[in-house]
Specification:
alpha+beta, SETD3_SETD6_MTase, EC 2.1.1.259, single chain, transit peptide, methyltransferase, set domain protein methyltransferase, domain 1, SET_dom_sf, set domain protein methyltransferase, domain 2
Length: 489
């Protein structure tokens, strides 16, 4: 039986081989993490001027016909840094902004640009990242005022120093972050060799790995998805809107056909406020209801205090050395899984569907191996939904609990020490690290407790042989085997 905990975050499956797609596809990815001003207000009632670059950006939007005197929001300095503040009372589902497609940054914008031809064979995110870097270096870029207000980095873990990353020791987030960074580096090296250097006239300004990480971070935190025919699009102004856990719906943005400005018509990106607001309130949206805190930290550079966001990914794999490897793989694939399966376990939630059957499949062997025969192929998953045998269930519990103990030993602090640290005023990145490692340890303890309880119940469980004998009428309701059959069991 192979049972290994993943070295990735809750989105582990997004980072596998050539299928890597490093952007959220479940909802919006819009956030401005760091203020362009060193100052921050404690409440929206305190008026602080936005940086001059933001005023220039706002003026550009006016010239483009995106905002006007009727626009119900304006940029403001808020606790998160920059955000959109209501200028008047806004009803729930009232439109707060609309941005025409001609200002979107997406694969279509790349295709229509000077580098469109050389980028045509690239993955969409690579093409857009390269486009962002190139456009940022141009004095005449359509988006130059937008680039001037974008942060150089966020609190995403991809930007952390080695010292800061050391605070994540033992966490899945650390390994996930290092894997993503290595992936981005390898993709940049390939782009440099195949696209950038052979086309110096198209890329006259030097492009560094830091430039590429900047573009990656912009896409990771701002790329919007789930629009009609749009899975990767950055929309200026929309990324002013910050995230709030109070918003419990993702149904706030969509694409419509409408006026694009003073003289034309185009598709519009439209955002409605998911909450009723008073004048002076900040506009908020929900980035993604399904992301774990580790994913929020990796993508956006923040976590929620809500423990329900904490997750731990259990990775299970059918060992190639297993004498029943072929049969087990066939069964797994027939039921929507593969040689490796990832299960995200969230705090205070039931175990994910499929976890126990997959575990029982991995542990299947010895006298239980008859269930792998072809005659059971169409029904075995149903049998695996319930305990197969005491030996099988015992092995599952023992391996999972040992793995939890090993993982817990890999952290350099205890839960109690983390909780003590949280009582002090922490740097934003240290606060993320403390929250992540505390959450993971709580999840490991929860998993261990679940399988400890299963161990204590082993003698009371009903296993396959008993269920089968009952179906044949050869076993009583109390579990006693009827007649002379008892001597054979």
């Amino acid at each position: 039986m192979a049972c290994v905990f993943s070295a990735c975050s809750g989105s582990a499956s997004l980072f596998q081989g050539t299928n890597f797609f490093p952007f959220a596809t479940k909802g919006s990815s819009l956030h401005l993490k760091r203020s362009l001003s060193a100052k921050c207000v404690a409440s929206l009632g305190t008026e602080i001027s936005v940086p001059p670059a933001v005023d220039t950006f706002w003026q550009w939007l006016k010239e483009e016909g995106v905002v006007s005197s009727k626009t119900p929001v304006k940029p403001g300095v808020v606790p998160e840094g920059l955000g959109l503040v209501a200028l008047k009372d806004i009803s729930r589902n009232e439109v707060v902004l609309q941005v025409p497609k001609r200002l979107w940054i997406n694969p279509d914008a790349v295709a229509a640009s000077e580098i469109g031809k050389v980028c045509s064979g690239l993955k969409p995110w690579l093409a857009v990242a390269l486009f962002l870097v190139r456009e940022r270096s141009k004095d005449d870029s359509l988006w130059k005022h937008y680039f001037s207000i974008l942060p150089k980095e966020t609190d995403s873990t991809i930007y952390w120093s080695e010292e800061e990353l050391s605070e994540l020791k033992g966490t899945q987030l650390l390994n996930s972050t290092l894997s993503v960074k290595e992936y981005v580096k390898s993709e940049f090296r390939r782009l440099e060799e195949e696209i950038i250097l052979p086309n110096r006239k198209l890329f006259p300004s030097p492009i560094t790995i830091d430039d590429f990480f900047w573009a990656f971070g912009i896409l990771r935190s701002r790329a919007f998805s789930r629009l009609r025919n749009e899975n990767l699009v950055v929309i200026p102004l929309a990324d002013f809107i910050n995230h709030s856990a109070r918003v419990t719906t993702e149904d706030h943005a969509y694409e419509i056909k409408g006026a694009a400005g003073l003289f034309s018509w185009d598709y519009l990106f439209s955002v409605r406020s998911p909450l009723s607001l008073k004048a002076g309130d900040q506009v908020y949206i929900q980035y993604d209801l399904n992301k774990s805190n580790a994913e929020l930290a990796l993508d956006y550079g923040f976590i929620e205090p809500n423990a329900d966001r904490n997750a731990y990914t259990l990775t299970l794999q059918i060992s190639e050395s297993d004498s029943f490897f072929g049969d087990k793989l066939d069964i797994a694939e027939s039921n929507g899984f593969g040689e490796t399966a990832y299960f995200d376990i969230f705090y205070n939630r039931p175990l994910p569907p499929g976890l126990l059957p997959y575990l029982r499949l991995l542990a299947l062997g010895g006298t239980d191996a008859f269930l792998l025969e072809s005659i059971f192929r169409n029904s075995i998953w149903g049998h695996l939904e319930l305990p197969v045998s005491r030996d099988n269930e015992e092995l599952i519990c023992r391996v999972i609990r040992e793995t939890c103990k090993t993982a817990l030993a890999g952290y350099h602090t205890t839960i109690e020490e983390d909780q003590k640290l949280k009582e002090a005023k922490l740097d934003s990145r240290l606060a993320i690290a403390v929250g992540i490692r505390e959450g993971e340890k709580q999840l490991l303890q929860q998993i261990d407790e679940i399988f400890n309880e299963k161990e204590l119940e082993l003698a009371q469980l009903e296993y396959y042989q008993e269920r089968r004998l009952k179906d044949l009428g050869l076993c009583g309701e109390s579990g006693d085997i009827l007649g002379d059959l008892g001597k054979f069991f």
